[in-house]
Amino acid sequence: RPRPPAEQVQPIINELINQLAEQPEVQMATQSNPPFNARDDATFTLVGHEEPIVTSANMIGNDYFSLLEQPLLQGREFTKTDLQAKAQVVVINAELAAQISAINPNTEVLDSQIYFGKIPITIIGIVQNAQLPWHKTVQGKFNLPMREGSTSFLIKLHPKQHLSRERIGELLKKIDPKWTVWDYVNLHDLHLQYLF
After folding, report:
1. How many CB atoms lie within 10 A of CB 107?
2. Alpha carbons 74 and 72: distance in angstroms, whole number
3. How many Å apart are CA 39 and CA 42, to the nearest integer?
4. Which of 20, 36, 91, 150 has the fewest CB atoms within 10 Å, i.e. the most exposed one?
5. Residues sharing a CB contact under 8 Å with residue 18, sequence separation 6 or more, in sequence order
6. Residues 94-101: contacts with CB under 8 Å, at least 24 apart
7. Angle (CA) 38 39 45, round 5°
């Protein structure tokens, strides 16, 4: 079955996130890819440098860093306006900021531009590093705004709470009966799986 266009999908996702936020177990929900969905082979270039930098990249929503409790060190996170306007902006981690500073020591990293292909993208924020359990060292990472119509989202629950896949499915069916929950993964369980 063909995937519906993004402009039809987005209102469903917005309503699901609103419904999730009203559930007593839920602390926060955001339309984002999970950390383990990041591509490890994304490349970009710096102004005045042809040599590409290979790094990790993810597409995230406006509450991603708050949900994961990853502190913002400089600048700002994405806003809903950034996502809706498809703004050409990026939030990077401190490791990638250090790599950029080493290549361009006379350039302020925040508010500078990188090129993703031929597209200029402005660095609007720098967040604290977060090491994924399957990496031996901290990786440089850049985060782009989530595309409209993406069906990935993250849910943060209050301590000692549980929200079943079936319950999310029920909420989704009330919004549009044609939709189902394709996959539902607990990040804590996944983290333990990679550790052991």
Report:
1. 14
2. 6
3. 6
4. 36
5. none
6. 94/126, 94/127, 94/128, 94/129, 95/129, 95/138, 95/139, 95/140, 95/141, 96/55, 96/140, 96/141, 96/142, 97/123, 97/126, 99/53, 99/55, 99/140, 100/46, 100/53
7. 120
What pTM does this model have? 0.86
Kindly give the interhelix angle for 165-175 and 6-21, rounded to the nearest 10 degrees. Answer: 130
Distances (CA, A) of 116 to 44, 97, 102, 122, 169: 5, 16, 19, 10, 36
Asked if 180 contacts 169 with a C-beta cutoff of 8 angstroms, the reply is yes
pLDDT by residue (tens digit) across 71-130?
A: 999 999 999 899 888 899 999 999 999 999 999 888 899 999 999 888 999 999 999 998
Contact 165, 86 (CB under 8 A): no
List the structure tokens of 88.
Answer: 């050409």
CA gap 184, 100 in Å, rounded: 36
CA of 156: how far to CAs of 29, 107, 177, in Å? 6, 37, 25
